[in-house]
Amino acid sequence: MSFIMASIVGVASGVLASMGLGGGFVLVVYFALFTDLVQKGAQGINLLFFIPVTLIAVVIHIRNKLIDIKTAVVCSLIGIPAVVAGFYIAQSIDNMWLRKAFAVFIIISGLKDLLSGWGKSKEKE
Fold this sequence. Notes:
The chain is an all-alpha fold. Helix content is 86%, strand content 0%. The protein has helices spanning 2-18, 23-34, 39-49, 51-63, 69-92, 95-124. The longest helix has 30 residues, at 95-124. The chain is globular and about 40 Å long.
C-alpha cells in the first residue's frame, strides 16, 4: 500500500512541479505527515528530487537561448554559498520549529496566491 501511495504522490508532485504549481509542497507534506521522516529529511529528499529536473530544464533553456549566461553565473556564485549557509542554519534548528516555519510559509504562499489571483480577476471586470 505504501509503495502505491508513494508512487501516486511522486507522479502528482512531478506533474505539479512541471506546471510550476509547487510539487515540492506535495512531497514535503507527504513525507512529513505520512512517513517516519523528520522535517529535515523530508525537505532534503524534496531538494534532491528536483536536481535532475533542474539540470534538464537548464540545458533545454540554454539550447533555446532563454538564459543569460552571465546572470546565471552571478546568481550561482551567490546562490551556492547561500545554500551552504542555509544547510547549516537548518541543522541548528529543532525539527519542531522547522516544521512550524514550513507550515507558516505554506500558509503565507497560499494566501498570497489566493489574494493576487482574486485581485487580478477583479481588474478584468
